[in-house]
Design a protein that fits this description.
Elements (H helix, E strand, L loop, with lengths): L1 H4 L5 H7 L20 H13 L1 E7 L8 E13 L2 E8 L4 E6 L3 E10 L8 H5 L11 E7 L1 H8 L8 E4 L5 E7 L3 H9 L4 E5 L1 H20 L2
Antiparallel strand pairs: 1-2, 1-5, 2-3, 3-4, 6-8, 6-9, 7-8
């Protein structure tokens, strides 16, 4: 594939890369194995392309019972080491996410579904920090000088603005849903990040830290 894209004089370079498995590598700790889902992926792609209503057998967790329901698959989304299927569930009349590795079986019917003409994956995700939806609010997080450069050099959300403070710290502002994914991301920075707004999110972070302190004190 690379050979087809590069100019003729670059062939020697791409030839030299062959057999060097360590040149390119995708490292994703916590990624989900989908080794047994090859047929499920093929059927889902066919259902998406042909707009065919399907019956899904799905387990929310390893211990949960299998649920069977009708599903209209729209999109396949790669996110944080997992693959998700976004589609319409006629019974509840709303869009849902399904984790690919939890789909036990898919049966494609002969029924052709009508895809929502207003559905757009970018619009569907734009106010989310990850994939789970919460109504967006203005979130302001202050980062200390130790991690300021790491925060500044990346795009965390399309709405972000960054304000440089006199003491070397920065303020990151985003209009984003305060989901569990956002909370987990903030906690990742530990004492180097402090939520300034909204107060409800600040209290949630504070509560998590307090419960964590209780947990570790209990075992000392």
């Amino acid at each position: 594939k690379i050979d087809q894209l590069l100019p003729q004089g670059s062939i020697a370079f791409t030839t030299a890369l062959r057999g060097l498995q360590d040149v390119f590598h995708l490292h994703q700790p916590g990624k989900v194995s989908i080794d047994s889902k090859e047929n499920v992926i093929k059927d889902l792609l066919r259902a998406i392309i042909e707009k065919r209503a399907s019956t899904i057998d799905y387990k929310k967790t390893t211990e949960a019972e299998v649920k069977r329901f009708c599903f209209h698959p729209y999109s396949i989304l790669f996110h944080a080491g997992s693959i998700y299927i976004i589609g319409f569930q006629p019974y509840h009349e709303n869009l849902i996410y399904l984790a690919l590795h939890r789909i036990q079986q898919i049966e494609i019917s002969g029924e052709i579904f009508e895809r929502d003409p207003e559905y757009n994956l970018d619009d569907f995700l734009k106010n989310n920090f990850g994939i789970w939806h919460e109504d967006p609010v203005d979130v302001v997080i202050r980062f200390d000088e130790l991690v300021a450069n790491t925060i500044r050099e990346r795009i965390w959300h399309h709405s972000q603005t960054i304000k440089q403070l006199d003491n070397g710290e920065i303020e990151l502002t985003m209009h984003v849903g305060p989901s569990e994914e956002l909370i987990a991301w903030i906690l990742r920075w530990g004492i180097h990040a402090e939520v300034e707004k909204p107060d409800s999110l600040r209290k949630q972070i504070q509560s998590v830290f307090e419960e964590g302190v209780k947990l570790y004190r209990r075992k000392t």
